[in-house]
Design brief:
With about 170 residues, the chain is mainly alpha-helical. It has 7 helices and 3 strands. Helix 6 packs across helix 7.
């Protein structure tokens, strides 16, 4: 029993190191990829565009919650996206006091280019995985992401939980 605990502890230590290295290298590679002249976005800008695309027209407060950014930080990001013609502010027709943001056509195009570049990058990194590896990797990443998003450390995840997490 003690051997299992030490082994599990050692594995968790290695996994923790891998996760940090993946996050660090992924962020650096994403920043490099997004710096392409056809994309020309920062990672926070891409994540903000993606969040706006997912909700269509949304309030800044909703966007702040979705992106886990403070209102002040998000305002700066959105202001720059507006300057670049990628996002526009609109008034809510039901309540003119409410300001919402939405993507422009150029914003949709730029986001699409960024997402295609990211997917192509990922495709290249996973080229050496066989179909079984990809299936297992996908399942494990879904479980890990679900536990991060839901603070659930017990690993009890149903397939319905995974589908909902991926669609969110």
């Amino acid at each position: 029993m003690m051997t299992e605990q030490v082994s599990r502890s050692a594995q968790v230590t290695v996994i923790d190191q891998f996760v940090r290295e993946i996050a660090w290298n992924g962020q650096k590679q994403a920043a490099h990829m997004l710096n392409d002249p056809d994309i020309d976005l920062t990672l926070p800008q891409m994540m903000t565009l993606s969040a706006i695309a997912n909700c269509g027209t949304c309030r800044m407060s909703t966007l702040a919650g979705t992106t886990h950014q403070s209102a002040g930080t998000l305002t700066g990001i959105v202001d720059r996206l507006i300057e670049d013609g990628l996002v526009e502010r609109t008034r809510n027709e039901g309540d003119r006091r409410v300001v919402e943001v939405m993507l422009t056509q150029d914003g949709q195009r730029r986001l699409s280019s960024a997402l295609m570049a990211c997917q192509e990058h990922t495709r290249g990194r996973l080229a050496h995985f066989n179909d079984d590896d990809l299936s297992m990797f996908t399942h494990l990443l879904q479980r890990y992401l679900y536990s991060i998003q839901n603070g659930n450390g017990n690993g009890t995840v149903t397939s319905d939980d995974l589908v909902q997490a991926v669609e969110a």
